[in-house]
Amino acid sequence: MDHPKNKDKRGRGQGQSRDVQVSKALSLLLRHAAEKEGLKMNAQGYASVSDVLNWRKLKSLKVTFPEILHAVDSSDKKRFALLHIPSAQPTESTTQATTTPATPPDAEHEAGSIVGEEQPATSVLESAPATSEAQQSATDQALSVKDTDPSNFLIRATQGHSIKTIDAASFLEPLSLSDESKLPDTVVHGTFHATWPAILQSGGLRCMGRNHVHFATGPSLESVLAVHADDSAQSKPKPDDSRVISGMRRDAQVLIYIDVRKALKAGVPFWRSENGVILSEGMPVAKSGAEKGEAQKFVSLDFFDVVVERKVGLGKIWEHGEVLQELPETLTKKGNPKGRR
Length: 341
What we know:
Order of helices and strands: HEHHHEHHEEEHEEHEHEEEEEEEH
Structural class: alpha+beta
Distance between the termini: 26 Å
Low-confidence stretches: 1-13, 88-122, 235-240
């Protein structure tokens, strides 16, 4: 399909490009606001593109179906997944697909029931792609189909959900010690100077309103340490950064490297999303002393391998359970940088 080229156009929203406005609105709806806004969504997070286009914010922006497709196709971090599931009775606005459908024919009925009036929003599309490779293939196929009817497409966010009815096990790939060949070499969480003391004090990483803590699969510890060992590092690009597409903000100041094998052995669940983000909800940690209430879930400090400060050149600040150096107050009191995609 032909997609609009909006990269140079500016619209409302603090000087953001039209593309960014559409992408952020989609992320807000599909990750966080679907329940509040009454959008029908199944347990895997799929919603009808037709319903999505009828959301008030997208209608106010006058977002079109081609712009939705462009948002999926152009996302540098592969934030969205798409399925093409033609209806049993094509309408005048529907042209029959010239390629193999993204899902088997028996999935068409199931998908229709997901977004239908009589089915619960928590239905699961059993025939949906089960691996990251299959989902990317399905998305590519959906984008190539010559079909202009948005009701024949399902869309979802690939990760980042705070909606509690989304079932991670139904669409994320679990990591397991039973097949170590599929474990990433690097699992790293990016954070900021101002946040690191709070992470230490709390005992680990929490989901902070989302369903999972997010991790990237790079840059590798070796590449980061090599940069800081070089006096001329300020003028060099950081190795591996270009291949990390999601899971961590590019301006992260502190990198927390996780011993994923140790964590898995202890029972901490980890998953991989279609866009390569490693996710974990952590494990419940009982509150101690006078604290009351339900145990919170953490990815505990016990599973932190090495922590590196990479912006001002401090290097290792934590290793194997020991604080090697404290961050200066001049860094921790600055607050976090404003959000960047």
